[in-house]
Amino acid sequence: MAERWLSVDAIAAHLGVNPETIYKWITRKRLPAHKVGRLWKFLGPEVDQWVKGGQAGAEGRGADSKGAN
Fold first, then answer.
1. Contact by Cβ (8 Å): 21, 35
2. For residues 18 and 37, what is the distance between their CA atoms, to the nearest angstrom?
3. For a designed S-S bond to 31, which of 25, 47, 61, 63 qualifies (C-beta 3.0 to 4.6 A apart)?
4. Considering only CA atoms, which of 2, 20, 52 is closest in space to residue 11?
5. How many domains does the chain have?
């Protein structure tokens, strides 16, 4: 069975954050997301791997500014 695509609200609930945080993470922290028409969709395992890789915890840093304060 194929992975189920999740909405912004579903992935926010999965991670325990506000949906607005998801939109910020898409652009600022490169949260793995796929645009389908006007909607953002997510695969749970991709997002889980991203979190486990430490990307969500890099406070105040974009993926391109590692080490910058």
1. no
2. 22
3. 25
4. 20
5. 1
Per-residue pLDDT of the chain (69 residues; tens, 9 = 90+): 688 999 999 999 999 999 999 999 999 989 999 999 999 999 999 999 999 998 777 655 444 444 443
Q: Is residue 63 part of a domain?
A: no
Residue 59 lies in a domain: no
Q: What does pTM read for this prediction?
A: 0.76
CA–CA distances in Å: residue 20 to residues 1, 2, 52, 66 = 30, 28, 21, 23
8 Å CB contact between 22 and 12: yes
Residue 31: phi and psi, rounded to 5, are -55, 130
